[in-house]
Inverse folding.
């Protein structure tokens, strides 16, 4: 019976091990699925829609093969389409039947105005034709627009001859593939998805089969042992002769007859047991090797979700302009370009990444450094760590981003505004200021939601953004007598304190030597650059404005002349060292405020500011 159980165990073990091995070999499907993309007409760009990328669950691996440099980038589908709106490209989408198809997209022709010049003479028509031909020739000579380094892309890749990019993109994203924007895009493109083909019972079957095999081996050994013990005569034996002691001294006697057999059997039995145990150990070791995690059932308890703050997205709000990694990359590019422009004092280079009042202040600095060798270089643009990113939630253009950087080395914080004019333009820095040490930022929307931008004349704020600079200027000029004084928080307003102290010191110094022959007056007024506003959580907004402070020096005596003996800065900007009519010097302030919502009991708070000299002129 023991042999029967041993055989049954062997059979069961073979079935279990065979089933487990079969699940990991002949019955296991492929690890990946691949979609090949082809196009019948060449185009400089190939766009793979998010619907294609999400045909199957899991991460995507993009492979593109061609000659030379291959470029790939991904971004929001609407942004990619906007960037390609004026050129031809191949679009890869999923048809209604679930098939991947490629279509050549041509740019839309601009709408032609109504024909109101039907009566024009032939000479005018010929001139228009010549102008059109010249424009076409100029367009043909213009270099192709390269997608490399565009601020629209969330990430980009570049490799030679073959490009492999791991992706995990949702439906709203698309991938752009190109070479240099002129040559046709690679046509050998595939997307690979992993297939979940885990065999959770392969491991238990193989290991269980090994255990059953070990039990079968033990049963087989016990059966053999029992059979050997049961061997012997089945009938009564004959009487044995009387034994006599053997004389060991007799030479040639058979000395090993009685004791040799048992010893031999013990040795043989011991050797067979060792031989039988070794296969069991070896088989068990082999069974436990090669079983990866997907060959076992995964038993994981469902974690208890932790409570998080609820953020309500307003209905109909559009997507945020950038992500945080994208903003970090854009800011680094801006800082590198501005650093190069500062080193070379190149205003044109600076204009590629600066705009508005930030560019105006830099231009003045370059002019002064060209005239005054030891004039200070402007502070570098801070880039990291990027603590706050608040993008505008807007699908169109222009679109903006507010960012705050806390620099660990200089122990300073910088608040700035970045703006992109259109889909092809780079982001430019238009406002930048230093945050005050005691600044408490209001509650802001998370970067993945973004915030809307209030209109310049918004009536939902304590004061409209377009009126903020004039109100604050009035407070600087009139102090407590200003009608807007009670709207602004005076405590902690370092800008007002600095302006007041500086003006009084300069006025005292002027009166000591020139009060009888001249006058020094001060005034503040809104700058020429438009305000920027972005909403906060509590129905308020962070508003950046430009304010100009103007110093005017005039002679009060007809015979007096204003001389700039110790003022090389004004002398360099005005282009004169004396004037009978006087000088005006303008400083520009970039000022950030928190403006509460209409009806709030809070006051308008200064968040940060920066001041730079803007220009100096001779009064005419």
């Amino acid at each position: 019976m023991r042999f029967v159980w041993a055989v049954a165990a062997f059979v069961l073990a073979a079935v279990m091990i065979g089933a487990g091995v079969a699940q990991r070999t002949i019955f296991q499907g492929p690890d990946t699925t691949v979609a090949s993309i082809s196009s019948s007409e060449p185009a400089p760009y190939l766009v793979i829609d998010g619907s294609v990328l999400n045909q199957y669950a899991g991460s995507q691996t993009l492979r593109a093969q061609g000659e030379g440099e291959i470029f790939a980038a991904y971004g929001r589908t609407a942004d990619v389409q906007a960037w390609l709106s004026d050129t031809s490209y191949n679009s890869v989408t999923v048809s209604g039947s679930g098939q991947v198809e490629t279509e050549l997209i041509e740019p839309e022709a601009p709408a032609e105005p109504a024909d109101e010049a039907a009566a024009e003479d032939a000479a005018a028509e010929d001139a228009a034709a010549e102008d059109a031909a010249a424009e076409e020739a100029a367009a043909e000579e213009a270099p192709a627009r390269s997608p490399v380094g565009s601020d629209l892309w969330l990430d980009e890749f570049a490799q030679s001859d073959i490009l492999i990019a791991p992706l995990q993109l949702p439906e709203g994203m698309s991938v752009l593939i190109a070479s240099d924007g002129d040559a046709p895009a690679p046509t050998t493109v595939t997307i690979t998805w992993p297939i979940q083909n885990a065999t959770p019972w392969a491991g238990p079957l193989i290991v269980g089969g090994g255990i059953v095999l070990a039990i079968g081996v033990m049963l087989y050994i016990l059966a053999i042992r029992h059979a050997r013990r049961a061997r012997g005569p089945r009938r009564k034996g004959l009487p044995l002769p009387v034994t006599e002691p053997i004389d060991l001294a007799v030479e040639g006697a058979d000395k090993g007859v009685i004791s040799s057999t048992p010893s031999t059997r013990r040795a043989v039995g011991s050797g067979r047991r060792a031989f039988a145990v070794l296969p069991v150990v070896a088989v068990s070791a082999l069974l436990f090797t090669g079983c990866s995690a997907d060959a076992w059932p995964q038993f994981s308890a469902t974690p208890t979700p932790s409570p998080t703050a609820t953020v309500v997205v307003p209905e109909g709000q559009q997507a945020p302009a950038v992500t945080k990694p994208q903003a970090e990359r854009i800011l680094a590019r801006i800082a590198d370009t501005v650093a190069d422009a500062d080193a070379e004092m190149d205003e044109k280079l600076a204009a590629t990444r600066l705009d508005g009042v930030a560019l105006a202040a830099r231009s003045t600095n370059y002019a002064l450094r060209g005239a005054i060798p030891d004039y200070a270089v402007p502070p570098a643009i801070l880039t990291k760590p990027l603590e706050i990113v608040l993008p505008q939630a807007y699908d169109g253009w222009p679109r903006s981003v507010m960012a705050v950087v806390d620099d660990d080395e200089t122990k300073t914080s910088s608040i700035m505004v970045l703006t992109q004019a259109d889909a092809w333009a780079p982001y430019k820095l238009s406002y930048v200021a230093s945050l005050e040490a005691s600044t408490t930022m209001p509650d802001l929307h998370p970067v993945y939601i973004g915030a809307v931008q209030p209109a310049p004349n918004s009536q939902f704020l304590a004061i409209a953004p377009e009126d903020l600079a004039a109100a604050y200027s009035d407070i600087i000029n009139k102090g407590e007598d200003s009608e807007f004084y009670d709207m602004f928080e005076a405590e902690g307003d370092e800008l007002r304190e600095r302006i007041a102290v500086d003006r009084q010191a300069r006025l005292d110094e002027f009166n000591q030597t020139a009060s009888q022959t001249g006058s020094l007056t001060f005034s503040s007024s809104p700058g020429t650059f438009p305000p920027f506003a972005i909403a906060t959580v509590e129905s308020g907004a962070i508003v950046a404005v430009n304010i100009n402070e103007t110093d005017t020096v005039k002679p009060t005596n007809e015979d007096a002349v204003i001389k700039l003996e110790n003022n090389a800065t004004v002398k360099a900007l005005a282009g004169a060292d004396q004037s009978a009519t006087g000088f005006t010097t303008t400083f520009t302030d970039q000022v950030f405020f928190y403006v509460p919502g209409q009806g709030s009991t809070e006051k308008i708070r200064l968040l940060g500011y920066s001041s730079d000299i803007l220009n100096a002129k001779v009064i005419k």
